[in-house]
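Re: that chain you flagged

S.,

Sorry for the slow reply, it's been a week of failed gels. I finally had a moment to sit down with the sequence you sent. For the record, here it is as I used it:
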Amino acid sequence: MSDDVIRVFLVDDQELVRAGFTMLVDSQADMRVVGQAGDGGEAVEKIQVTACDVVLMDVRMPRLDGVEATRRLNSLPQASTQAPRVIVLTTFDLDEYAFAAIKAGAAGFLLKNTPPADLLSAIRQVYSGDAVVSPSTTKRLLEHFAGALPDAGTERPDLGDLTAREREVLIEVARGLSNTEIAKLFTLSEATVKTHIGRILAKTGLRDRVALVVLGYETGLVKPSK
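Prediction finished late last night. Pasting the structure tokens below so you have them in one place:
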């Protein structure tokens, strides 16, 4: 297998679903399915001995669900390689475990009825180090479960290190805007927006865009709609 092929691991309790994802992923020249599991516990065991880059993780599964499996994968001691990036797959009605999965370290989440082209694009984005955040889904999900968020009476100390522009960019990321939309809003280049986001991540110690969305809500920079 070529070094530039994205190694994908599938986790879903429905064999038919895994078969469909396998056909889709293996149809691409730059990615291959390297393993499968029918529940979270099996996934954690197999992934420890299977080199993979991206995990497509169902949320609702027997024995061990996708939330706990994601948490365990991200807590595994890593020797010479990083933990695989996890994309959580949610149901159309915004599965109540999705927010918890992101908190557990998932690189993003997608609805299970996401068009194939968008799913493949998401795999590539996550592999490249970005996070998959659907603006509409992010907004609906976080606002729907806003009651589960910690009180936002005080800001995290590290937000004080942000410049005024970085804070503005963080707010728009948390609102679900894309880099292109943020660039247009502030009359900046997309490259400049990416630079700002990189600096925000470095200053806050967070790892990706999904975590910034959560941070925006947790700190009260963005308020859920009533």
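What I noticed first: The beta strands are 6-11, 31-37, 54-58, 85-90, 108-111.

Talk soon,
D.
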